[in-house]
Amino acid sequence: MTFQPSDDPDGKHTEVIIKQMCVNCGREASSECTGCHKVNYCSVFCQRKDWRDHQHTCCQPGAVVSMQEEVQGGVVEVEKVKA
User: Which GO terms describe its cellular component (predicted)?
Assistant: First the structure.
């Protein structure tokens, strides 16, 4: 959720609350990617479901799994790594 200032027609300053949406399902998001902080999720389920696509654009160090590793290893398990 972000707060942005808004100019009221009466000259008053108000804040508009912009709710972030889950990139996987579109519901209201409660968390964001801890690697890049650019995408939002409503649940761990949605975050994990989106990881296969998001890992290629996430700027988290060590997040990208090469296609060769993915094909050779079959299923690749990804762990969260704090930078």
Answer: nucleus
Cα–Cα distance, 22 to 31 (Å, whole number): 9
Report the candidate in 61, 64, 4, 66 with the shortest Cα–Cα distance to residue 35. Answer: 61
| Global confidence as pTM | 0.53
* Distance in angstroms (rounded) separating the CA atoms of residues 75 and 39: 24
* Pair 39, 50: CB distance under 8 Å: yes
User: What are the distances in angstroms from CA 52 to CA 2, 6, 64, 73, 76?
Assistant: 27, 37, 9, 15, 10
